[in-house]
Design a protein that fits this description.
It is built from 13 helices and eleven strands. With 301 residues, the protein is an alpha/beta fold. The strands form two sheets. It has a seven-stranded mixed β-sheet, with helices on both faces. Strands 5-11-7-8 form a four-stranded mixed β-sheet.
Amino acid sequence: MKVTILMSTYNGEKYLSEQLESIFAQSYPNISILVRDDESSDKTQEILRKYANEGKLNWYTGKNLGCAKSFWHLLCNCEQADYYAFCDQDDVWDSDKIKIAVEMLNKENKDIPLLYCGKVRATDKDLNFKYEFLDENFPIDYPHSLVRNIAPGCSYVFNDKLREILKQYDCNKYGIDIHDWMVYRIAACFGKVIFDEQTHMCYRQHENNAIGAVPQGFFGGITLLKRFLFGKLNNTRSLNAQRLEECYSGQMSEKNRYITHVVAHYMDSFKNKSVFLKSVDFKFNGFRYLYFKFLILRNKL
């Protein structure tokens, strides 16, 4: 089974070599690496050129698209493989990360879209442990995928069946804000998400992260409360449901089409909002559920 690692880089010279070395050290043997550089202005391309000359990776560059569109460009334009893995430029992987993911995916029905994701160890810039990031108690299903992403994209490994569906989504036409969350939504809608309770990588948190982790438990609740009280909220979940509806509605099951419509159009009328608030398809515990209700009431989901 061939695995293609998809990495988007942008001014990543500080941590890039360390991450690449951790990929070269993977115990899984059949790996190729494809990097798209998003018009870096530091020494990132110099580092990529060095490793490419050694035959360790392939890379290309293009105009600056931003993180989400750059990753989408990679998944739409890479050569076919059995599995694909997203990779950030600044993390460090355990040597068994890909091996474990492939083993878990191989146990599943290969004829359906599959997405593996897992818990990660959030660290500081020097790889000192901070906390484990992923809430395994949050429901893993399509309705809940519309309101929350359960794992960072750097943990994702997915099969070619899922990639074929992902390629139908034209991010230039529909728009995209976070690539991994869109992948998770589509996988939950049309296939199966496999959750790994063990951690197999360091998720480095530093001042230049494109997207940072929200802590779990009490401190995660405090972070969300601060965002609710003082942050700039927007209705990105509703917007992304609209995007999914426009692109995939005709392929969805009746239930998923209905759920998508509820989230996409809850702001259209008081009746729609009431249906969303009372929906039995969205049930989770703790402060996050209250936060979820508040966002609906404020038209900010």
